[in-house]
Amino acid sequence: MKKFKYVTLLITSLLLVLTLAGCGSQPLSSQNILENDKKSNTITWGVKADQKLIGLIDVKDGQEKGFEIDLAKAITKKVLGKDGKAKFVTVTSQSRIPLLKNGNIDAIIATMSILPDRKKVIDFSDSYFDAGQSILVKKGSSIKSVKDLNGKTVTSAVGSNSVDNIQKIAPKARVLQLPDFAQALTALKSGQGEAMTTDNVILAGLAVENPGYKLVGGTFTTEPYGIGINKGQGDFKKAINKGLKEVIEDGTYNKLIMKWFGNVPGFDYKEVLRK
Amino acid sequence: MIKLLVDNWSSFISGFGWTVLSSIVALFFSLIIGSLFAILEVMPSKVARVIGNVYVEIFRNIPLLVITMFFYLVIPLYVVKINGFTAGTIGLTIYTSAFIAETVRSGINSVDIGQMEASRAQGMTFWQAMRYIVLPQAFKLVIPPLGNQFINLVKNSSVLAFVAGFDLMYQGNAIASTTFETVNTYIVVGLFYLVITLPISYYMQHLERKLA
């Protein structure tokens, strides 16, 4: 027994020493991302894979498709030059910040609103999309705007700030928080709620796939989306902002908006065009 | 952690209340339904045994979440409108009753067959013999595994969170995602569950000592 104890002790201390030695080299996240990316000629983006129109992996060819994907490709070309490659890694709302922090991805472009709480942990680029909260209802519903939600039941996803907003604007609305947006929509479809609420772009994607449903009442909050960049990456942030500005100025941005959001029922794409 | 608890006290307490209510309702009905199906499984009639077996095997072998989702999403579409709390509690009741049926059946089977035969020889009907002779002995035998089922039931009630049933876990998710204090929130939620399950655990031990 005593022998066994010593072996355990030996292995434990060995592991500890190895861990400490590992800490010696510089972690990925604190290296200069812009320099690394220029060397490899690739920017690694964290994108959504399950949101129609924004970032969705097409099951037929396995390619990522959507507005954010196209925008990321355009910005990559501006930052690295014509041959610059954009690499995509799938993230979720929960995993995106941890993945950025540990250096798995260089930047997040995944429907992330610029919020003060998030700014404490990461940096944001200039806003690349003026999203806002809206409502999705069944066609023919009596709900026409957010005010009509008082006394009604609204579904949404847990962890989105949409819930707080609804409680401020329509205090008498009952909010059901479901694990994700797909489930919030399923709950709406089976009559558990009369409306669903979250950012208009996410609802737009759902409306396109579910013809019986439409957006109503326009937006009642402003939730500018920003590209998430790790703290201490000033050079990279500057380069991204410059790239984004060029994409907007040469008209690529508006073309992408028209391409993805030009034909969504109840969604006014002119609201989000940039001049 | 204290601050988190104080700030969100009303949320935690309301979640705690719904969890307790759901657990009590599900416990009561699953015990009744479970015992009924246990008796069906040991009845002389072959039809009754088949019905009992089919019920137990179906609901014991489907995940609780699937049963609950069925009641939350499918039943309102075709039959009757039920909210998340009701759907979750129904799912919990059915799922647990299958396990309780198996537990009680094993208890009935371990009561010597001579007890039943002797009662019938005295002129009792099958149901009288069950009610007065076999079941009281069977329940004494299965108190420890039954206690396990009750504790599992309380913990499984967290399934309500997935159908917006306003239970402890639902409130925990909501608080964790607004305060970003993930670790502390779930520690508090865990402690609240202990407040319900530990007394059950000790009560079952006490019952075991008293009756055995």
TrEMBL record, chain A:
Residues 1-21 form the signal peptide. One of its GO terms (cellular component) is extracellular region. The keyword Electron transport does not apply. Keywords: Signal, Transport. InterPro entries: Bact_solute-bind_prot3, Solute-binding_3/MltF_N. It holds the Pfam family SBP_bac_3. Residues 42-264 form the Solute-binding protein family 3/N-terminal domain. PROSITE patterns: PROKAR_LIPOPROTEIN. The keyword Kinase does not apply. GO terms for biological process: amino acid transport. It comes from the Bacteria. Belongs to the bacterial solute-binding protein 3 family. This is Glutamine ABC transporter, substrate binding protein.
TrEMBL record, chain B:
GO terms for biological process: amino acid transport. The keyword Transport applies. InterPro entries: AA_ABC_transptr_permease_3TM, ArtM/GltK/GlnP/TcyL/YhdX-like, MetI-like, MetI-like_sf. It is a multi-pass membrane protein. It is found in: Cell membrane. The keyword Transport applies. GO terms for molecular function: transmembrane transporter activity. The chain crosses the membrane at residues 20-40, 61-79, 186-204. Residues 16-204 form the ABC transmembrane type-1 domain. Its main location: membrane. GO terms for cellular component: ATP-binding cassette (ABC) transporter complex. Pfam families: BPD_transp_1 (PF00528). Keywords: Amino-acid transport, Cell membrane, Membrane, Transmembrane, Transmembrane helix, Transport. Belongs to the binding-protein-dependent transport system permease family. This is Glutamine transport system permease protein. It comes from Companilactobacillus tucceti DSM 20183.
